[in-house]
Design brief:
By secondary structure, this protein is α+β, with helices and mostly antiparallel strands. It folds into three domains: 122 residues, no CATH class; 49 residues, no CATH class; 95 residues, no CATH class. The chain is 29% helix and 29% strand. The chain is built from six helices and ten strands; from the N terminus they run E-E-H-E-E-E-H-H-H-H-E-E-E-H-E-E. It has a five-stranded mixed β-sheet, covered by helices on one side. A hairpin with a 6-residue loop joins strand 7 and strand 8. Helix 3 packs across helix 4. The protein starts with a strand and ends in a 7-residue tail after the last strand. Bound molecules: zinc ion.
């Protein structure tokens, strides 16, 4: 005995009128045993993949329809040729057809052709895939990251550890750039203004620790990574990390985390580390060190 279930994607207009109805998957489900109840992992992954294909396909079609007319005169631009863009997402690797549009006759200085989809997708990996790849790669090896993602999600079956490493490094470089230049003073604010400030909130706790890591390329080489976490009582924790022997601007990571966690100048930060003796246990600093302008 079994049930046949047909899952459909219905596109509706603003007035709820149906524009199209497309079949996603057809499930044939038995119901006589415990393992028959509910979706299997393979069915769930297949369904996610098909939903992603259909949703992205309609989004891309709508985007291209809005970009095909010339923005100046509204005339429909001709298609010179098509290329294929591979777009990697958490819910599958998609091959998208990217048309190249001819220059409109009303334009005399524009490029001979342009590809709207290239402008929409300057990167070919979806941000959510980058997010999970980077998050898991910070916790386990690149290889285990691939296994974890492939276990639960319909990611590309040929996803490899080297691709996860490349993506994690690109995210790391972007985060490094967002830190900005090395600050002249580790903490923000002016000490002379402290007396005129209202009472600061309770201190934040900053835990710092270090660990030996093996070099990815030079396997016999190890280095020390410093990692830390600020734990305010009135907000979410923030984490940072740097390699002192590699990054001469490591203070950026600490000061950025410290200043972003301290909503008010003058707030104390208590730093705890196993490197500090048990007797002193922690040291405290006030959130400003720079002189007055
Ligand atoms: Zn035109």
């Amino acid at each position: 005995m079994s049930l046949r279930l047909k899952l459909q994607l219905v596109v509706v207009a603003d007035d709820d009128e149906q524009v199209s109805v497309d079949e996603l998957v057809v499930l044939t489900k038995d119901y006589e045993q415990l393992e028959h109840v509910g979706l299997s992992l393979a069915e769930a992954k297949g369904l996610l993949l098909e939903v992603q294909r259909q949703v992205v396909g309609r989004q891309i079609a709508a985007f291209l329809a809005s970009r095909t007319p010339c923005p100046t005169c509204g005339r429909r631009r001709g298609i010179k040729d098509h290329k294929t863009i591979v777009f990697r997402t958490l819910f599958g690797k998609l091959e998208l057809v990217s048309p190249r549009l001819r220059r409109c006759p009303c334009q005399h200085v524009a490029q001979a052709s342009m590809s709207p989809l290239v402008e929409l997708l300057p990167e070919h990996t979806a941000p959510e895939l980058l997010y999970l790849e980077s998050k898991w790669a910070s916790l386990v090896s690149y290889g285990l990251t691939v296994k974890a993602l492939q276990d639960f999600l319909p990611v590309d079956a040929r996803l490899h550890a080297t691709a996860v490493r490349r993506d994690a490094l690109s995210v790391a470089r972007r985060l490094e750039m967002e830190l900005g230049p090395e600050p002249r003073f580790a903490l923000a604010g002016c000490a002379a203004a402290y007396a005129s400030l209202p009472a600061p909130p309770p201190p934040i706790t900053v835990g710092i620790d270090g660990g030996y890591l093996r070099h990815w390329e030079r396997k016999q080489t190890h280095f020390v990574a410093i990692v830390g976490e600020s734990i305010p009582t009135d907000g979410p924790a923030k984490r940072f990390g740097f390699v002192q022997s590699h990054d001469p601007t490591g203070a950026r990571a600490y000061s950025t985390t410290r200043n972003s966690s301290s909503s008010r100048m003058g707030r104390r930060a208590c730093v705890s580390s196993s490197a500090i003796s048990a007797r002193t246990h922690s040291i405290c600093s006030i959130g400003f060190t720079s002189p007055c302008n």
